[in-house]
Design goal:
The chain has seven helices and 14 strands. 27% of the residues lie in helices and 26% in strands. The protein is globular and about 45 Å long. α6 crosses α7 (213-223).
Length: 224
């Protein structure tokens, strides 16, 4: 199911995870669901009024099975660069493998058995870099290369799995699904300090916040 949660911001409800479409300078797909969500992504794009070939950019918050899953199946119709950070970009390119000595790395290694790597241009993004109207913020902890994107112009924060929504509040990524929860806490505080105000908080899990996004992030940061 696709829902327009703010003007030009669409949520695609996938299998236990959210992907998003944002009409920025180009139509921008944000994360891409699980390997079993191709139909949901295609249907969501159609409901938002565009085809797969019209997506101009993919912003990846991080590499996980439930965030990169449909990229391979959408290509070659999807002919857009994927922006990702550091270690997670290397995982998506197949240049590195998740470490098995970290519990989350082991989960990623197992998830890779059912996740095809996409034949797409994977371009690195730097902390503080502008991509369209968004600024990238490196927010490690959930994964080493996790990155959030905030557009002051659109009033939108793309928070990935740095946090999750629960009963209208934001919670930090939990130990089981994180490389380093201390780094998660540091990243939440850093993002709350560095990012400009935004209303819409797009999270990977739970319901996105249609208003008060940066306030909710600051409330969480004050408890960590």
């Amino acid at each position: 199911m696709a829902t327009e949660i703010a003007d030009g911001v669409w949520r695609f409800d996938c299998r236990g995870v959210n992907a998003y479409l944002v009409f920025d300078d180009v139509p921008t797909l944000v994360d891409a669901g699980t390997p079993w969500d191709e139909a949901a992504i295609r249907r969501g794009l159609d409901e938002a009024g565009i085809g797969v070939s019209e997506v101009g950019r993919v912003l990846l918050t991080h590499y996980d099975l439930d965030h990169v899953g449909t990229l391979a199946s959408l290509a070659p119709e999807l002919d857009a660069p994927v922006r990702a950070y550091g270690f997670d970009a290397q995982l998506l390119r197949g240049a590195r493998s998740p470490p098995i000595r970290n519990h989350k790395g082991l989960i990623q290694r197992l998830g890779g058995l059912v996740t095809d790597l996409p034949d797409l241009d994977v371009l690195g993004v730097r902390d503080g870099e502008a991509v369209g109207s968004f600024t990238a913020y490196h927010t490690p902890g959930h994964t080493p290369g996790h990155v959030a994107y905030v557009s002051e112009e659109l009033g939108v924060g793309l928070l990935g799995d740095l946090v999750a929504e629960s009963d209208g509040d934001l919670d930090p990524s939990e130990w089981l699904i994180s490389y380093d929860t201390d780094a998660v806490a540091t990243s939440v505080r850093s993002l709350a300090e560095r990012a400009p105000p935004f209303e819409v908080a797009c999270v990977g899990h739970g319901d996105p916040l249609a208003s008060g996004g940066s306030e909710a992030l600051r409330r969480l940061a004050s408890t960590l």
